[in-house]
Amino acid sequence: MTPSQIILIRRQFGALARRGDDFAALFHNRLFRLDPALRPLFPADLAAQRGKLVKALAHVILSLHDLPSVIGEIRALGLRHTGYGVTAADYDTVGLALLETLADMLGDAFDGESRTAWALAYGTVADAMIEAGAQVAASVAAE
Prior knowledge:
Structural class: mainly alpha
Order of helices and strands: HHHHHH
Helix content: over 70%
Number of helices: 6
Radius of gyration: 15 Å
Largest sheet: none
Shape: globular
């Protein structure tokens, strides 16, 4: 990621974080609309989950300038998600829900440059999470 992409994401997330619960609620609504089969992977009451989502996003966004420093945490998150039943294909749906939610919440500020930056950041994180889950699946299959 370029420094300007990181600055853009941080600025936009700063605006979103003030409405973090609304952002997370809209994200989850969109996610479940895109793929209702994902709903059972989440608790019935999403209040705590919304907070976790915003906190996790903030942590990664603050670390974009040095992703290697948090890659272990990202991979561990991927392992946990694999344990919850998340598949590699589900990350595409999550990415689409994220980008659509950002577009809704940021309006005209979410232009092509923003979409590219956010998609790159999400793709980097998702790839690390998917890779961690795939390694677990491969070692289970080898046993």
